[in-house]
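Sorry, I am new here, but would you mind making up a protein's amino acid sequence and the tokens describing how it folds?
***
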Amino acid sequence: MNVTIKELTSDLARFRDLSISVGSFTADSWTEPMGPTPFPSLTTFRNWDMVLLKRYKPFYLPFCDLCCLCTYGKCDLTGNKRGACGISMPAQQSRTVLLAACIGAATHVSHARELLTWLTGQFGHDHPIDTGGIDVEVEAPLIRLVCGIKPMVLGDLEQVLDYCENQVTQLLAVTHTGQEGNNLDFESKVLHAGMIDHVGMEVADIAQVSALGFPKADPDSPLADLGLGTVDMTKPVILVIGHNVPPSAGIIDYLREHNLLPGVEVTGICCTALDVTRYSPSAKIIGPISWQLRYIRSGVPDVIVIDEQCIRTDTLQETAAVHAPLIATSEKNCLGLPDRTHDPADAIVADLASGKVPGALILDPGKVGEVAARTAVQIAPRRKKFKVLPSETELADVAKRCTQCVFCRRACPNDLPVPQAMKAAAAGSFSALAGLYDECVGCGRCESACPQKIAVHSLIVAAAGRTTRGETFRIRTGRGAIRDIEIREVGGPIVLGEIPGVVAFVGCANFPKGAREVAEMAMEFAKRRYIVCTSGCSAISAGMYRDEEGKTAYEQYSGAFEAGGIVNVGSCVANAHIAGAAVKIASIFAKRPLRGNYEEIADYVHNRVGAVGVAWGAMSQKAASIAAGFWRLGIPVVVGPHGTKYRRMLLGRADHDEDWYTYDARTGERVYGGPVPEHLFFAAETKEEAMVMVAKLTMRPNDTSKGRAIKLTNYIDLHRRLIGEMPSDLHRLVRTRADIPVTMRAEIEQILHDREWKESPIPDPTLLARMVRKTKV
């Protein structure tokens, strides 16, 4: 708050034009008593972390055997060798994971800071926080849980970000040479980074939902167009890429104010696309992060606007090749462009439209909107959608230059048979090349590896031209938070196991076999009456497939947080609502104290809420920090095969009975709770393995016999159908005969008999000794 006093006279002095600045006033109207751990430090939850890490031990998959972080190196850490600073291989691998988590957390927190600064400038510090009106009374479950405050207005979020920024700085300091040396302490700090990341994401999304008129916890949020085939190429086309929505909002505002919106196509890739459709459902999503090269090279977008995160760093070169001007809008991604923020809009438009300059840096979202819109309108008739994709005749001629060196296949992260497809294309058959389209992740590594400088990715997209032009799908716009009444309705069935679980498809688009697998998995679990959530590029990918009736997942299934629903919460920062839903189950349904009470809530979630995250195409450091935030809450995460490049898994050993003991809160005794969930971080090689593992990881010690029978039914059915046999671990998952699915009783009883199985009691589970006297649900 700033106060200016024109003139003040006292006994001491006379003041003129006195300016007084006060950071903030805190009026605490929250009646819930403060919990034990508001604004926790790096070691506040170290004991809880160690409980998890004792059960889910790090399994290291070194991506590199060397440490190269200081000038003592390179240091060989193979075997039992240590580096010059004394660091071991396990500690170095965990240190690298911490670096990735810090980068991810810093990215979301800085995104939240930039967004909040802009929103408070536009709407004021006193703009109320509203994520769902009377339907959402627990508006910021993660902020309440971690920080112990109840934010009422945008200005209240500033102290939350102050805390997050402080913690990220402290965490980054841990990775300095000669600092932490124990691998498990590094891992504890990874979990802390993940928790901070989730708080930062929650700040970002509740701020933009509150101020920009996004859907507010709306299960029936509007459907938006998805896919290249939905774009009217006769109109000027603007492409926005990134994650921070203000510049895109500025474009929509300018077009609305000048009655240009019906005549200009606003299209997007990645999370900015998701958020601009939340702002204006008339905007169109082209695809996830992996669609950047194929869409730019198509020549369809006339102007490209980038903000921050997950944007190709060669975007300026790619846009120049198709004569489309580029506008950079973030201090974190300037691309060497001149800063034109304070230049007149007329001058910038003239330079961009004439081709005098390839692009400009503009840091004012309002000016971005004007410049992008005016430039697109002026340039579109002259560009005639200039493209660099070859015709079929040109394609065959280019393919003939291929020498079959196989460098492209070696470079391909998915080991696609590019050389064979090129050979067929040279002979005039393009079907093999077109067949690579769905599985190509758009990284362009094949082109960098090619000694003949063949634009391999362009050839793949050109060969699949009919497919790309026919990509027309529908996606439900991001709804934001989960309503409190939804939590009340599903809390009991989830905790008791009668709704088999919550499965969240999150993260990037580095898929092993294309986006279709995400859609197929999401619809399979929705069909089995799991609650399915989506966010980010996975939310987009889940919509890029039609069933036999021609419907996408979002057209076929409800958008409500209910059994059989597919819930798109929004962009990457909206992941906070998925974690927040698990926390709200403990708070709203089970009446557990929320305020500054992280350990108790995490213990509840881990033992009772059957949630699993699936980051099938995880690629970025943000994906690592998002996953870490779920881990600290005790929620398992399954990744695709590329996820092994994060360097370590967190795996349980079902055959080590001693790892699976828990306290029975009713009696205080240590009892066997079973290996559920078996892993905290698991990489699956195939979609089929992932689906079976997800069904198993939804099991919790607290499941009732009815609930466990439902979960076992899904697990066994998927295992039989996808793996081809009965699971080998049923004797570890059946606690009493009442757990056995009725339709499989005879077969399973014989298996149990052969394993000399014995019944075990169903505990009231907790991993915290201090919770043994608390007997709530």
Notes: Residues 96 and 394 are 45 Å apart (CA to CA). Residues 89-123 form the longest helix (35 residues). The first strand starts at residue 2 and ends at 9.
